[in-house]
Write a structure and sequence with these properties.
single chain; about 150 residues; mainly alpha; rod-shaped
């Protein structure tokens, strides 16, 4: 009966010739978590600013409604009050929407900066890893041919 060859030693030698750099994996993980933390910070900051802006807008609108709901002496005063309310509400809407746009623009800018920095860091890390792998492969090839 034919005996099957044990490839355990072959695979052990092969994997030993191609070592995995766990430090590089750890660094990549740390880089990713740092990027995620910074992106979360940008998102949370934008959410806080948006919430504050919405609350201010609501408070201002309620003050205007309070003024609108007061009893008036003349019927024409009701029309004037309603016109004033509509006019100031339209102005406030334009101002607040511009403020929301500024928040969105800041988020976009900060996110772009973070992604560009992360891309640069990743490129540098990949270059280092490729150089190290090339050096190790060259050394392993020299060692293998020397035997």
């Amino acid at each position: 009966m034919a005996k099957t060859q044990d490839f355990t030693a072959v695979f052990k030698d092969m994997l030993g010739a191609f070592p995995v750099d766990t430090k590089a994996v750890e660094e990549a993980f740390k880089s990713q978590t740092t990027l995620a933390e910074k992106l979360s910070g940008v998102s949370i900051d934008a959410a806080q600013k948006s919430t504050e802006l919405s609350a201010k807008w609501a408070a201002d609108t309620l003050k205007k409604i309070e003024e609108l709901s007061k009893a008036k002496a003349e019927p024409a005063d009701y029309a004037k009050s309603m016109t004033d309310f509509a006019s100031t509400s339209a102005e406030a809407a334009a101002e607040h929407m511009a403020a929301f746009a500024e928040i969105a623009k800041a988020v976009q800018s900060q996110t772009l900066e973070l992604m560009m920095a992360a891309g640069k860091d990743a490129s540098e890390d990949l270059t280092k890893a490729a150089k190290k792998a090339t050096d190790e492969m060259t050394a392993a090839a020299k060692k293998a041919t020397a035997k």
